[in-house]
UniProtKB/TrEMBL annotation:
Residue ranges, annotated region (Disordered): 1-55
Recorded name of the encoding gene: PMS1
The organism of origin for this protein: Iconisemion striatum
Basic and acidic residues bias locations: 34-43
Record-given protein name: PMS1 postmeiotic segregation increased 1
Length: 324
């Protein structure tokens, strides 16, 4: 028993010593960690450290709104102005003038549309609807251009034709011919006539050194062209004072150029686009004017269709419903 009591006492003491040492060791460790501040906090620690703000009540929101009143927008700076005189009567008079101008009939020719069944076009001429044949206009324009500018090519003759007072119709015709424009003499003393009224009609005439007149070349595209046609040119120059090529065309040359204009016009497409017809109308107004509205065959360019009513009463009277 005695030995058992001694052993129990020693074991109890040793256990208390161990507990004391472990407690001291724990206290030292915790004290050391308490002196050292942590560098980074965990997200959970941060969330725990932050205090959530309580939502504002309605009264607090109203207090904040009234505590900071809204700023009123600044009024824009006034711009400089100047009073302008205005007359209602003058405005009314101006409106009446504008309305009368707009209701007036349009001047010139205005293209409306093409008839699908034919090659003619409907145009508006003032208060009238008219039918236009563009091919007749184009024929006339071509004929006019050929009369003014076309030069018939002259072909050299194997035997030149001598020109005398008798063949030309008198000394006055020879004198008229000699007064026409000529070139400078060549080395042989021969002089060629360069007058456009002779050259354009297909005649090449030479004045020799011996003062003889002869036709050395003549156009062969015109059938039976000869000295009689040259006399027509000289007659126009002598008696009609013709100064342009168009005024000096002989009848045979005129008929030949007319046939050429018809041939060229027939080469146009049957259906012309709107732009081409507008161009034809523009050239017709510029080159032919308002008086010459007839084709080379004596037919009119325009045919009247109907009158456009200017008031509602005229329209109602013109377009009455059919009584069936």
């Amino acid at each position: 028993r005695r030995n058992g009591k001694i052993w129990g006492r020693t074991t109890g003491r040793s256990m208390r010593r161990r507990q004391k040492k472990s407690l001291e060791h724990y206290n030292q460790k915790t004290s050391a960690e308490g002196l050292r501040e942590p560098d980074e906090k965990t997200p959970r620690a941060k969330l725990q450290g932050q205090k959530r703000k309580a939502p504002l009540s309605n009264q607090q929101l109203l207090d904040q709104l009234f505590a900071h009143p809204q700023k009123k927008p600044k009024a824009p700076a006034s711009r400089p102005s100047r009073p302008l005189p205005c007359s209602v009567a003058a405005l009314r008079l101006q409106l009446q003038r504008l309305s009368s101008q707009s209701s007036a009939a349009p001047r010139g020719l205005h293209l409306v549309n093409r008839l699908t069944s034919q090659s003619a076009w409907v145009i508006l001429c003032g208060q009238r609807l008219m039918l236009l044949n563009p091919f007749r206009v184009e024929e006339t324009l071509l004929f006019k251009r050929l009369l003014e500018n076309n030069i018939l090519p002259a072909v050299s003759l194997q035997n030149p034709v001598q020109l005398t007072d008798g063949s030309l119709g008198g000394a006055e015709y020879v004198e008229t011919l000699c007064n026409m424009e000529k070139q400078n003499p060549d080395l042989n003393g021969n002089v060629l006539f360069s007058d456009a009224r002779l050259v354009a009609n297909g005649f090449k005439i030479k004045l020799t050194a011996e003062r003889h007149l002869e036709v050395t070349a003549m156009a062969d595209c015109v059938p039976f062209l000869g000295v009689k046609d040259l006399r027509e040119i000289l007659t126009a120059v002598l008696h009609k004072k013709a100064s342009t090529v168009r005024e000096c065309r002989p009848l045979k040359v005129t008929n030949y150029l007319q046939a050429e204009a018809v041939r060229l016009a027939r080469q146009l497409p049957i259906t012309l686009p709107r732009e081409d017809v507008e161009e034809i109308i523009r050239r017709m107004e510029q080159q032919l004017g308002e008086t010459s509205r007839i084709c080379i065959h004596g037919r009119p360019f325009l045919q009247h269709l109907a009158d456009v009513p200017s008031t509602d009463k005229e329209a109602q009277a013109q377009f009455r419903p059919l009584g069936l």
